[in-house]
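User: Teach me something about this protein's shape.
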Amino acid sequence: MVITKSLNGTEETFKVEGRLDTQAAPTLLEELERMDDHVESLVFDFSELEYMSSMGLRALIIASKKVNGALVIKNVSPRIMSILSTTGLDKTIRIE
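Assistant: First, the predicted structure itself:
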């Protein structure tokens, strides 16, 4: 997994590429811990995300709590959308 971060004012974007699985999720959680406290919204760009496991879903839940729900997921493939829909996260996290 590769994470590319960019900051635009109080919005931080994490572009996640590859597999967000048991091995990669701790790296994402570490990046979330390093996120500056002034960040008010977090955007995940999943245009290059190939796979997400339950640990990846857990990381998304933790991320949404860290930014008080100001979380948006963009560029979701049908495969990843199916996972988000099956778990109900599409109803609690904004997806564009």
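Now, about its shape. DSSP finds three helices and five strands in the chain. The CA atoms of residues 32 and 40 lie 13 Å apart. If you'd like, I can walk through any region in more detail.
User: That's plenty for now, thanks!
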